[in-house]
Write a structure and sequence with these properties.
The chain is an alpha+beta fold. The chain is built from 5 helices and 12 strands. Strands 3-2-6-9-10-5-4 form a 7-stranded antiparallel β-sheet. It has a 3-stranded antiparallel β-sheet with strand order 1-11-12, with no helix packed on it. The protein has a two-stranded antiparallel sheet with strand order 7-8.
Length: 187
């Protein structure tokens, strides 16, 4: 017997996620389109793949899918208002939003922690959502600050102490630690 959807939402709200905005250019008219997601994840290093899971009811997802290319804009802690703008259906989400076109034309949002430019690699069935796999074409880390978080239907930030600790942890020791952890990981 399947769990009650309300119980499932309540239980899964206890999983803290980062927030990203997926952007593309509508192939029909060239206009920028975008949607906020919390279902973004790294999938594979070889080949370089990421994924996000748009709802089948999304009005933006069909236009992103049709473009065949998209950008993931990982939001910073100070971008909650931007996230809220891209989380709604309809309207001009790009009005007053600073952005520039990426190498393949997908909008890269100013102020994002990182941008990841992708080619749509596959779309899998995920129940009432799709699972969109993107092959990473280019990526850039832009800012050294904390991420925007989503937890129990609210936005949040890491304490500044965590950001200071992250800056103190050098990228070379981080790479070595990640490689060591990855070699022991089953994920």
């Amino acid at each position: 017997m399947d769990p009650d959807p309300t119980d499932m939402k309540s239980a899964l709200a206890g999983f803290c996620t980062g927030v990203a905005v997926i952007t593309a250019r509508d192939p029909a008219d060239g206009r920028p389109v975008g949607m906020a997601v919390q279902s973004f994840s790294s999938v594979s290093l070889d080949p370089p793949l990421v994924c996000f899971c748009p709802a089948h009811t999304s009005t933006t997802w069909p236009r992103i899918r049709a473009s065949g290319r998209f950008a993931v804009n990982v939001l910073a802690a100070d971008q909650e208002e931007l996230c809220r703008r891209f989380a709604v259906t309809g309207g001009d989400k790009f009005a007053g939003t600073a952005w520039r076109p990426g190498a393949a034309g997908a909008p890269l949002l100013d102020g994002a922690l990182a941008t990841i430019e992708c080619t749509l690699d596959a779309v899998l069935d995920g129940g009432d959502h799709a699972i969109a796999l993107g092959r990473v074409d280019a990526l850039t880390a832009h800012r050294d600050t904390g991420p925007l978080l989503y937890f129990r239907r609210s936005y949040g930030r890491l304490p500044s102490v965590a950001s200071e600790a992250a800056r103190a942890f050098s990228s070379s020791s981080m790479s070595a630690s990640m490689a060591s952890a990855r070699s022991r990981s089953e994920a």
